[in-house]
Known about the structure:
The chain has about 180 residues and is α/β, with parallel strands linked by helices. Helix content is about 35%, strand content about 30%. Helix 5 runs parallel beside helix 6. The model has no long low-confidence stretch (mean pLDDT about 95).
Amino acid sequence: MILIENRDLLLKEFNNNIKIAEIGVFKGEFSKKIFDTLTPLELHLIDIFEGSTCSGDKDGNNIVWTNLSEEYNSLKEFYKNEKNVFIHKGNSFDVLSSFDNEYFDLIYIDGDHRYLGVKKDLEVSYSKIKTTGFICGHDYTTSMFVDVVNAVNEFCDEKGLSIEFLTKDGCPSFCIRKNN
Length: 180
């Protein structure tokens, strides 16, 4: 396993001009980092975009609340001139299931943090990621998100995979290569 200082630097491990999905967009700060760093061929932003929720930064600090419907409208406005950014409102499993198998090069999971939600996102991502692709995600820490850690570890055991990259953020990001 390779340790990387933070998830912004993790993005530098991937090629530009690839097809990416981000599950769990919140206010879109990391989406903008992905867009600026990787200049993706396609960037699919997936969230329920309903109700109010809170989140912290990459370290789990600075918790803020937001109205996801307002964030959806804000992101639509922000990316209105970008023909390669697609904003999907709905359940991550349903949205990802609508894509062909092996469609994406990279999927970043930061949505439902409950065990079954993470497990479901990992399973659908596995079929939608190319054989040379990566499944990554946020909040791989037992101090706050034991369900995420358990789901990721179980998924890796079942598929014979391992975490290739792990960041040192307060709430680490993991990265699994599909064909390692």
